[in-house]
Amino acid sequence: MKAKNKKWWIWLIGGIIVIAGIWYFFIKEEQVKIQLETTKPAMGEISNSITATGTVQPVDTVAVGTQVSGIIKNLYVDFNSTVKKGQLLATLDPDLLQYQTEQITANLQNAKSNLAYNEININRQSQLYKVGAISKADYDNAQNQYNVAKAQVNSVKAQLSTANKNLSLTNIYSPIDGTVLNRSVSEGQTVASSFSTPTLFSIAKDLTKMQVRASVDEADIGNIKVGQKATFTVDAFPEETFKGQVSEVRLHPTVSSNVVNYTTIINADNSSLKLKPGMTANITIYTVVLENIMKIPVAAISFKPDSLVAKKYKINSPFAKGKKEGHQQKKNKQNKTNKNGAGIWVISKDSIITHKKIKTGMDNDTEVQVISGLTTNDNIITGYKNLSKKSSGSAAKSPFIPQRSGGGNKNSGGGGGGPR
After folding, report:
1. pLDDT at residue 414 above 60?
2. pTM above 0.70, yes or no
3. By Cβ atoms counted within 10 A, which residue in 14, 160, 210, 309 is the most buried?
4. Is domain 50-59+206-290 given the CATH code 3.40.1790.10 in the classification?
5. Cα angle vertex 234, ends 228, 239, to 5°?
6. H/E element holding 90?
């Protein structure tokens, strides 16, 4: 009898254990654990901006050419050479122009000799005319020949000045202090300036000062003004941000694929000489900047406590009052709130969640300006994390099985939606 009782107790205890296990692992609802994400209002800067792309260029670039044709005889500078104003850059073969100068010099001597003869002749004819030895026609003819000889001397002198000037132009000098960006010719190459001036060198005036030529879309150009701050990055230094300032908005539009853009000039310091001409820049222009203002994350405005939060925390909500208000009245109230401000939730030291109305200002989709309604000591709720095992789960999930939206890992509130 005792053996039967003992066996019965063993079966009873085993059954209880099995039932308890089934209840614990399959029936028991796991206690939900959540962790609120909070922050405090910060004092700082908030801004609105637009983005654009452009190229880095020197502030002033001079194309050095030649006014005379000829063969490049010597080159004295090359790419990246630093030059001074008046420095000799290149020479053209001067032989042909030298020969022309010598020929015109000889013509000048001939013209002067002819002028001297005609001067003597007019003096002689003048004396003969006074005594009546020659006619008036002979005297006028001598006077005309003298005038022609005098004009011929002046003409040949002008030709000689032109020839000497062309001869001097065979020496190419730098018009500015700067750096040679491009050399377009080589020694022995023939250059012709019959129809247009050929470019021999491109010289940048000062590479320590650069400008970014940004291409701004017509939808954004209305917000751009001279003096606005800008920042940009280049692919060569992706971790470094360069600063600049808008100096000009050019009125001439460019059209590409039916998109109208306007060139906006941004001046930038390049004392480090990291910026090179032609680099592609990714530009941010700050159209509105507010400094020393209170700001909070946009997520704080989107947060609304849901049933999970209500289970763990005490909520002081003004929405609990006046439940009998009509739908239209609530809608009007919400519209007024959206127009004049917003509502956020703060948590006190004793874990009580309270709703606060605030007056907001500028919003850049990440942060929003707070004009009134908060202090820097308020602990604002921006969302919460669900720490429950069933939600977070450590087991690997198959990529082929659809997962529930949100994953239970993070939530910005039962009111729907995280940061905008």
Report:
1. no
2. no
3. 210
4. no
5. 95
6. strand 88-92
